[in-house]
Amino acid sequence: MIIKHVEVVETLLSAGSDPNVLDNGGRCPITTLLWYHRATGNDVDDDVMIICILLIQVHVYCVQSDVSCNH
Asked: Which SUPFAM superfamilies does the entry mention (predicted)?
């Protein structure tokens, strides 16, 4: 089960966690989060959307700044 903790995601991203790292199945965190909610029939709630936005913001910052996402 995936547990959604927005504060934990914020902390990990602030500490330099890479939002684009792939798991053994070749999925990045945002893909895994959305896939899980689709596969289990759960609604995409506010916490899921906030986490998606955080992951996208860090990715966009890294691309626009031409920096490594795992700083």
From this structure: Ankyrin repeat (SSF48403)
**What is the per-residue pLDDT across 27-69, written as a single tens digit (0 to 9) for each?**
999 998 888 888 888 888 888 999 999 999 988 887 788 776 6
Interatomic CA distance for residues 24 and 22, integer angstroms = 7
Range of the domain at 22: 6-10+18-65
Nearest residue to 70 via CA among 8, 6, 7, 15 = 15
In a domain, residue 1? The reply is no
Domain count, the chain: 1
Q: Is 70 helix (H, G, I), strand (E, B) or coil?
A: coil
